[in-house]
Structures are given as structure tokens and as C-alpha cells.
Design brief:
Elements lengths: L5 H14 L6 E6 L6 E8 L7 E6 L16 E9 L12 E2 L4 E6 L5 H10 L1 H10 L19
Parallel strand pairs: 4-6
Antiparallel strand pairs: 1-2, 2-3, 3-4, 5-6
Protein name: Suppressor of fused domain protein
InterPro entries: SUFU-like_domain (IPR020941)
Length: about 150
């Protein structure tokens, strides 16, 4: 990520406050294949509950998101995930309002390569509807991909 800014510190402190945990959090840089870009990942243990591990990106919110017309969105994002079955419930991972911008966390789930291709064809909203309709356990790492369920 490079230089740690006050915004990065605020993001890390906010994530640690929301996620909790009983050990000192770990921050590690993850690089692209050419080691030209990286994103820092904050990891906390026993968070938000005993036996769980939670992660949050730090620094993605440095990048502006834009509407299709090029206008910058009012919010920036970071990513969060919890290893094992846990969804951050509404209000449990509140956004962070800084003087210059709002930052919100998006929860990540693992998907199959075939599901990525399906999302490219039908869109994320339709894909999400299919997950719900087929009652897919998105935390089951051995689950069958949606196209194999006849959901495409």
C-alpha cells in the first residue's frame, strides 16, 4: 500500500472496533503478481465470536468509485469477510464517516469460476436472487456451483 495515512489508521481502528477479537490484529500486504500494487489486510482472531477469524481491507477506499458517466460516487468501499459461516448483520459493520468522505464495507463470499462467468452474463443482482432461491450455503467451500444446480 505504501505510505500509511491518517485515513488508513482511521479505517483500521474502525474495523477493529466493529470486528473485536481477543488478540493483537495483524496487518499484512498482499501484492499482485508483479509486486507493483498491494492491498493491506487486517486480520483479527476470535472476532466477532470465539473461534472465528475476520478480515478487512485497508486502503481500498483510497480509490474512487465512479458512475457510468464518470461522476464520483459519494462513498468509497473497503471489504470485509469472516472465515466460517458468519454474515455481518445490518448495523453490525457500520460505515465510517470521515470529514472528506464516507467509507462502507462490502462483505465478500467465495464463488466458483463458473459462477463468475454466470455473473458476467446475467448480472450480480440476478445471481444473488438465484443464490437465495436455491438456498445456497455460500460458506460451504465444497458446495455445488449454481450452473450445476440448473440455475443458469
Amino acid at each position: 500500500m505504501g505510505t500509511v495515512t491518517e485515513q488508513h489508521r482511521a479505517v483500521a481502528m474502525h474495523a477493529m472496533k466493529i470486528m473485536g477479537g481477543d488478540a493483537r490484529p495483524k496487518v499484512q500486504a498482499f501484492y499482485d503478481d508483479r509486486r507493483q500494487r498491494s492491498v493491506d489486510i487486517l486480520t483479527t482472531l476470535n472476532a466477532p465470536e470465539a473461534g472465528l477469524k475476520s478480515i478487512s481491507s485497508i486502503g481500498l477506499s483510497d480509490c474512487a468509485l465512479r458512475h457510468s458517466n464518470g461522476r464520483e460516487l459519494e462513498t468509497h468501499v473497503e471489504l470485509c469477510a469472516c472465515v466460517t459461516a458468519f454474515f455481518w448483520r445490518e448495523g453490525k459493520f457500520a460505515g465510517l464517516q470521515l470529514p472528506s468522505l464516507a467509507i462502507n464495507w462490502l462483505q465478500c463470499i467465495a464463488i466458483h469460476g463458473s459462477e463468475r462467468r454466470l455473473i458476467e452474463q446475467i448480472g450480480a443482482d440476478v445471481f444473488d436472487d438465484l443464490l437465495q432461491r436455491h438456498e445456497v450455503d455460500v460458506f460451504d467451500m465444497d458446495r455445488i456451483a449454481l450452473p450445476a444446480l440448473g440455475a443458469a
